[in-house]
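Check this.
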Amino acid sequence: MRTRTTTVGILAVLALTLTACSSGGDSHDDTKASTATASSNGLASSASPKQEAVQGPLKLGAGHHWTDTDTDGSHISGTTTAISYSQPATGVDLPDEVSDFDSPVWAVLEVKVCADEDSSSVLVAQAPWALGFPDYTRLQAPGTSGSGVPKPEYPTGDGALVKAGTCLRGKITFSVAEGTRPDQVIYAPADRDPVEWAVPKA
């Protein structure tokens, strides 16, 4: 069964719950990452994010570490990593009709999020992820899931919780217009400075 979910609804939820912020960039593959936080009794939002500017786009595979304080006063920290980007992607078996483009080219972004050992649980979803293009346009993660999408899928819909000291890795399937290629992967939680990774030329 093919499913296309919209990210509009979860964007509103994530705007209240996202607390993944940066405190610098970490450049190693086993890094830890996050999209949003959740307290033990439900969703929580950021109280006082600590953030430092990232100097230019990171390389794919480099982690972006962040730390924050949850609304209940608990410590929250982790790392967000864009692992790889492939275009055209193998393993995609979707009809062109599910794309917004007439002649789509399928692409797959693999990402990973982890919560630090001393962090509260982290809520992750596709919504903050996007592709950036040389003409300064963006293509938001479409939330495509189901059969025909490469596995493991990164969470869609309401997302998934990641416990302290654990990670969640998955793939996000995009369709891009024929003849175009992004130059950046962008992670942009609501009300936070975006973090960018450079996409190598084909």
User: Anything to note?
Assistant: Residues 2-198 form a domain with the Immunoglobulin-like fold (CATH 2.60.40.1240). The CA atoms of residues 30 and 63 lie 8 Å apart.
